[in-house]
Known about the structure:
Bound molecules: 3,4-dihydroxybenzoic acid, magnesium ion
Strand order of the largest sheet: 3-2-1-4-5-7-6
Helix content: 40-55%
Amino acid sequence: MDATREAWARADAFLTETLIGPDAGLDAALAAQRAAGMPPIEVTPLAGKLLHLLVRISGARRVLEIGTLGGYSTIWMARAVGEAGRVVTVEALAAHAAVARASVDAAGVGERVDIRVGRGAEVLPTLVPGFDLVFIDADKESGTLYLDWAARLGHPGTVVIVDNIGRAGEIVRADSDDPMVAGTRDALRMLGEHPRFDATALQTVGAKGWDGLAVAVVI
Ligand code: DHB
Ligand code: MG
């Protein structure tokens, strides 16, 4: 068995070609993000499509994203909410938000996307509750804060997805002094213990290495 990172990436490329293929809007968004020198940490195409399908399967019409980056996952979800649906996406860095604005507009879903610039702690308290699906993909140190807002801004039945819960297995390294690992662990414990969440998590390997996603429902 070839269980290297390269092998995971090759298999991911095959699955992406087979199930997704080229996509002008998404490919342009990635090119714009790379040209702007932003970190290449957006969700993979396969994970983006999973987000898209979770929005469709759940029938979510109001989606909240915490962590816009270049708008790649935003476009995937905006395509799934329907004409009358909306994605509110929160981005701490104005430069990232500007790239995302141009990319969601170019992808033809600009009217469905409301980009709010600022840190989650400042922006989230200003949002109108009633989100049907929340995707958390921002600074890992603030995971419990974002989950708390997901519960407040959601309703029973709201779907909550958290990116990067595996961190290459670092979540179980007892001597880790990485605040992103501590924040991720705290978020996972909150999902396990908090009376308003019922959750699971899946580890993933693929183009981004070894990581994972948590999926929860608000009770
Ligand atoms: C990091 C953040 C992400 O959202 C991601 O998907 C991968 C890595 C990071 O900050 O290291
Ligand atoms: Mg991520």
